[in-house]
Design brief:
Blueprint: H1 2-32, H2 39-55, H3 60-83, H4 91-113, H5 137-159, H6 161-171, H7 173-178, H8 183-209, H9 217-230, H10 235-255, H11 262-276
């Protein structure tokens, strides 16, 4: 029983990381109605930036904040220079651009930082007071960081004029322009926030899986499954879906299929959701009258 509870809690910890990436995917989907297949590689690249800053002598939390800010700017620049010119282009062309971004970030990270596996420090001491026999300090800390990110984003979008403008621009760009909202700027800010969230997720997962250019490949797949389960157009649903996937992946991978086939759990979840309930648990079902 203790082993089951441990696997359940460990699944919640990894699910928090999947929830962060799923949240970033949903934010970009709401703004552009496209899936950013490069989200994982952008998070990995941001984590390498944090690692470089730490190696240069900066304290962890200073490097953390600096990386989040750099990632925000980097993602905003990508939206302005690469994604915005693809507006109103065919869907297949946009998908190819996203795949191209994935390959570029992966290759540049390997070129700049190498392909050898590196250790990434955890900000939470192993003997911290909140560590338990069931969950390590990093697992507890990762969940706490994820919940803080969700709370901050909820407060931003719910209670600030800029957040309300970003929500309006994502839901109805035409009406937003009519009331004076700069939709292009709101979309760029949305991409920046998604990049910052991805950076946080990367820095939380790196101490667990270690740091290398391939580290976010599986995480992105699990996060995509979480976003689909919760609802690809619902941020709260994406967070819930991320936690669900983390728990299912850990329990099924441990007690049913084994660790070698854990990645197949995400694929089965994706296919199952698309067949049974494409809108997800909390997504909107859109009906078009013809």
């Amino acid at each position: 029983m203790d082993a089951f509870v441990h696997q359940l809690l460990a699944g919640l910890a990894t699910g928090g990381i999947y929830a962060s990436v799923a949240l970033a995917l949903v934010m970009i989907y709401q703004a552009t109605h496209h899936i950013n297949f490069a989200q994982g590689e952008m998070a990995m690249f941001s984590t390498f930036i944090a690692w470089s800053l730490i190696q240069a002598g900066l304290p962890y939390w200073v490097a953390f904040v600096a990386t989040v800010m750099i990632s925000f700017v980097l993602a905003a620049v990508v939206e302005f220079t690469v994604i915005r010119p693809m507006h109103d282009k065919p869907v297949l062309s946009v998908v190819v651009v996203f795949i191209g971004l994935l390959v570029i970030f992966h290759s540049v990270a390997g070129w700049l930082f190498g392909y050898t596996i590196k250790q990434f420090p955890s900000p939470f001491a192993s003997d911290a007071w909140f560590a338990t026999s069931m969950m390590s300090a990093h697992e507890v800390g990762a969940i706490f960081v994820t919940l803080c990110v969700v709370a901050l984003l909820f407060s931003f979008f719910r209670f600030t004029p800029l957040g309300l403008a970003m929500r309006a621009a994502a839901q109805n760009p035409v009406s937003s322009r009519l009331v004076g909202i700069n939709v292009g700027r709101m979309l760029m800010l949305g991409w920046g926030l998604a990049g910052a969230i991805g950076a946080v997720a990367g820095m939380m997962v790196a101490p667990v899986v270690f740091l290398d250019p391939h580290m976010m490949s599986g995480v992105l797949l699990y996060a995509f499954a979480g976003a689909l389960i919760g609802g690809i157009d619902n941020p709260v649903g994406a967070v819930l879906g991320g936690f669900i996937v983390g728990v299912l992946e850990n329990l099924i991978g441990t007690y049913v299929v084994g660790t070698e086939l854990k990645l197949s759990v995400a694929l089965v979840l994706i296919v199952g959701v698309l067949i049974v309930k494409p809108s997800g648990l909390m997504g909107r079902t859109i009906v078009t009258r013809v």
